Amino acid sequence: MPASRLPPELLLEIARKLFAIADTSSLKTLSLVSSEWLSVARPFIFRDLRVQLGGMKSLDALTAIVRPSPALSSLISTLCLVGDINGRESSDPQTRYLYPFVSPLDILALVAMIPRISSISVQLCRVEGGMIESNLRRFQGVYNCSLFLFQVSIDDIALDMLTGSFRGEALSLTKLHFLSPNNQPLNFLSSGNHTSDGSSIFSSLRHLCVGLSTNFRGRIPIILAIKSKSLPELQMLELACDLAHNRHLHTMNGFLNDKGRPVEVLLLDYTITMGWGDYISDYLVDEVNPPSYDGFGLIPESWGTVSLKECCPSLRSITFFLSVLMESESYGATEKSPAVLQWNYALRLIASAPLTLSSIKIGIYLDEDTSAEDMMGCTISVVEWENWDNVLRQLLGLREVVFFRVDQAKRRRELHLGMEGLGHIPEKFARDMSEWIKERMAVERVVLLRYVVED
């Protein structure tokens, strides 16, 4: 039977399957086959639109398509503007100034043309304001749209303008590089961020993701600025925390104390560290801040902690992102390994969780070249699983403990995942890890453990 004469419901199912596996290329090819295929494929092609920015011309080209065609623009649900379609990252912060430039005014003008947009993501771009007051007044409207900024070079004006123009359910600010001139203090979120009816743009926020910025100065002020806002509807909170930087750790814990009460789902990333090495070992020999064991393993005394049962009394799920180091790496498979300290610190937090906690997920960072034979030569074999057994035994409502591999490439590519980046643990690694833990935990806890591996 010719494709054009297939039942419409079959064409729709084919398009839906291709969309589910993100095969946009095949969808575009099918849209050229016939008018029937075009009408079926087009909504899926434009639903989650990803546009590579090669300069202003690419944004102008998108505007030229969207503006004269309300029917087409109404198909767009999520829009991602990407400066580098391959998601490449640079280790040199100065190269971020070479990212394609996009004005916040252009972003807002584009969003205004898309009536059903639910989220906009901006990645690997340079976003600068530089607007005069008259231009700011042109865009005092607020859009019911979530905002995701990932690895963006941005100045205070642009950030203040963007965060003040969207009132969606999600806000994600991760790996920002601040362009504030002359090392002046950051001044974003300073305008009050209120809509025309006087309500805060944060009043409807249900999902907040705040990662570390790529330059030191923005790491603490960004969370302090948000801390001053009311977040009454916040249900899911993702925070990246540099355990090697005491002030940042204490600031994050303070944020949890102040804003955590409505939170039901918490994600904490401890893998983004700056200056581990000898910096951590100094904590362990410091007589002023002696190491603490307390049944959780070695933890620097100065790190401090919070009580999750007090600051997040409604917590149902917690996810940690923890490092795994090989024996050959600095402080690799020893109790003083920075990775082991992360696991110990996470365990202390779990011990303070409320009885409402039913799910624990642990995303482990493994190097891309980690082989399936490496489990016995890494920090997994040094973690004190007997301590984990004792803590998990106290959580009467616990239903699962899930281990997965953090897919770093996926986290860069799929901005809507926030920090999650769910990936598969190598099968043999997972099997060896399971056997190792099984020998050190009671059967009642072992049955709760699950490992995400390839089918």
Unreliable segments of 5+ consecutive residues: 85-91, 93-97, 412-418
Shape: globular
Helix content: 25-40%
Largest sheet: 13 strands, mixed
How much is the radius of gyration in Å? 24 Å
Instruction: Please work out how many helical segments DSSP would assign.
Output: 17
Fold topology:
Elements: H1 8-20, H2 24-31, H3 35-47, E1 48-52, H4 56-66, H5 70-73, E2 78-82, E3 101-102, H6 104-112, E4 119-123, E5 126-127, H7 133-138, E6 146-150, E7 153-154, H8 156-163, E8 170-174, E9 177-178, E10 207-210, H9 221-227, E11 236-240, H10 246-259, E12 265-269, H11 277-285, E13 291-292, E14 299-300, H12 308-311, E15 317-323, H13 338-351, E16 359-365, H14 385-392, E17 400-406, H15 408-413, E18 422-423, H16 427-438, H17 443-446, E19 449-451
Parallel strand pairs: 1-2, 2-4, 3-5, 4-6, 5-7, 6-8, 7-9, 8-10, 10-11, 11-12, 12-15, 15-16, 16-17, 17-19
Antiparallel strand pairs: 13-14, 17-18
Protein name: F-box domain-containing protein
Based on the model shown, name its key terms:
455 residues, four-stranded parallel sheet, alpha/beta, Leucine-rich repeat, LRR (right-handed beta-alpha superhelix)
Describe the 3D structure.
With 455 residues, the chain is α/β, with parallel strands linked by helices. The protein folds into three domains: 46 residues; 158 residues, no CATH class; 221 residues, Leucine-rich repeat, LRR (right-handed beta-alpha superhelix) (Alpha-Beta Horseshoe), CATH 3.80.10. The strands form three sheets. Strands 1, 2, 4, 6, 8, 10, 11, 12, 15, 16, 17, 18 and 19 form a 13-stranded mixed beta sheet that branches. Strands 3-5-7-9 form a four-stranded parallel beta sheet. A two-stranded antiparallel ribbon has the order 13-14. The longest helix has 14 residues. The protein starts with 7 loop residues before the first helix and ends with a strand. This is F-box domain-containing protein.
